[in-house]
Amino acid sequence: MLKKPPGIEDVFPDRITKWNHILNTAADVFSMFNYREIIIPVIEFTEVFARGIGADTDIVSKEMFTFEDRGGRSLTLRPEGTASVVRAYVENGEYNRLSACKFFYRGQMFRAERPQKGRLRQFNQFGAEMFGSGDSYYDYEVILMMDLISRKLNIKDYTLLINSIGCKECREDYIQVLKAYYKPLLGSMCKDCNNRFDKNPLRLLDCKKESCAEPKKDAPDITGYICDNCSNHHYRVMDYLQKSGVAYTEDPRLVRGLDYYTKTTFEFVTDKLGGQNAFAAGGRYDNLVELFGGRATPAVGFASGIERLFLLMDEEAGETGIDYFLIHSGSESLKVITALIPKIISFNLSIDIDPEKTGFKAQFKKANRENAKHALIIGDNEIESGKFIVKDMITGEQKIYDLDKFDHYLKSQIKN
RNA sequence: GUGACUGUAGUUCAAUGGUAGAGCCCUGGAUUGUGGUUCCAGUUGUUGCGGGUUCGAAUCCCGUCAGUCACCCCA
């Protein structure tokens, strides 16, 4: 039997209703805030991610599906959306002249990690990005959108964590302070943290190991070290959130694994995803557009994992069934009833039929299984008498009509 | 990449080293043209794969593949 590669899922029809509900809810909220959809490629030149996300990040250094095209150029299946949207924005000369240019996207992402609960190699995200304004309002706006989406999806018991990791300048100052603090403690800390010390000192704050808990406890918080500009921005965002009733928790230890963030970072977390905890995350990235060769353009955005939202949502009621299951008694009646199908469909009514079964019992069984609202019966007896029968599959009630008034019957159904 | 656990019917799971089973699903039947509930009957297997131990392996051992969960990290 042929199998799918590890960490890749098929989404069968029984999950599609819930799946589309997530996608539609997100798209609705985005459009309420004037974010418009952009369809970005699944494949980019590897450079887009290497430069955008950061060559030293885990995503780029060990989690990308990368291959060469026939010309020997390195291509990569996108591991996230932001880098592609930025590339598209910079590359397009029309959109990058707009202020507060808003996009949203949705689609598959790929990361070559070991699959586990809430983590797949091919997974789906939706996300929103705003380009062209450094105003704290927009940080608030994207957070508000994700909060609204979470509420509309009826997700319970989540926490919004928020932090500011400062701008390029003040973050550097803080990193020096942090390294000075940690340096004498490195001996008692884990191997990973010793690596982080040089590669990405901010992540020292993120270690969950017991050996590092003690030194971490008294580490200086970034909040006291960021510049006035960043600090004001940070408090402004929190003020907006508070005044509009969006609950949040300030977490000065929240750092993110992607290099491009500046100032605001945030995560929507829950303890119901096993080893994972975030179902949405994002932040501001004021330097990324410039890094991609565009004019200096501040930006902010976020992304959310659809499979993770799916796991957090309650089971939804099953799909709604078809309108009519057509029941026949073999060859001749099958001809008659088949000829009516285009007519029924033209009234926007959905149908199904089993041409191979001729027994009524089996056909009714199938009608029931397909959740049909009605059964339309035209068998040999009906053809002989010029009638057709409609059975209401919920009440069990059955009515007989004249076959030459079939159109009239359909019209009367539409009015209901 | 590292680790732990699990692989038996379509599915969920049984089976002291001794003839591979049950529920659900599916198919058929219970006044032959009427579903759901009920009752009866029936189909379904290279026990993931390959070796080894044994008179005998689903069961024990080794390898391999797959899945799940966790770590790292992330949505």
Description:
The protein is α+β, with helices and mostly antiparallel strands and 416 residues long. It has two domains: 13-167 and 226-312, BirA Bifunctional Protein, domain 2 (2-Layer Sandwich), CATH 3.30.930; 324-415, Rossmann fold. Helix content is 38%, strand content 22%. It has helices spanning 13-32, 46-53, 58-62, 82-91, 136-152, 168-182, 191-199, 210-217, 228-243, 288-291, 306-312, 331-339, 341-346, 360-369, 380-385, 406-415, and strands at 36-37, 43-45, 66-68, 74-77, 101-110, 122-131, 159-164, 249-250, 262-273, 276-284, 299-305, 324-327, 351-353, 374-377, 387-392, 398-402. The protein has an eight-stranded mixed β-sheet with strand order 1-5-6-11-10-9-7-8. A hairpin with a 2-residue loop joins strand 9 and strand 10 (276-284). Helix 2 (46-53) crosses helix 4 (82-91) and helix 5 (136-152) runs parallel beside helix 9. The structure holds one RNA strand of 75 nucleotides.
What is the topological layout?
Elements: H1 13-32, E1 36-37, E2 43-45, H2 46-53, H3 58-62, E3 66-68, E4 74-77, H4 82-91, E5 101-110, E6 122-131, H5 136-152, E7 159-164, H6 168-182, H7 191-199, H8 210-217, H9 228-243, E8 249-250, E9 262-273, E10 276-284, H10 288-291, E11 299-305, H11 306-312, E12 324-327, H12 331-339, H13 341-346, E13 351-353, H14 360-369, E14 374-377, H15 380-385, E15 387-392, E16 398-402, H16 406-415
Parallel strand pairs: 1-5, 7-8, 12-13, 12-14
Antiparallel strand pairs: 2-4, 3-4, 5-6, 6-11, 7-9, 9-10, 10-11, 14-15, 15-16
Helix pairs in contact: 1-5, 2-4, 5-9
The protein binds one RNA strand of 75 nucleotides through helix 3, strand 6, strand 9, strand 10 and strand 11.
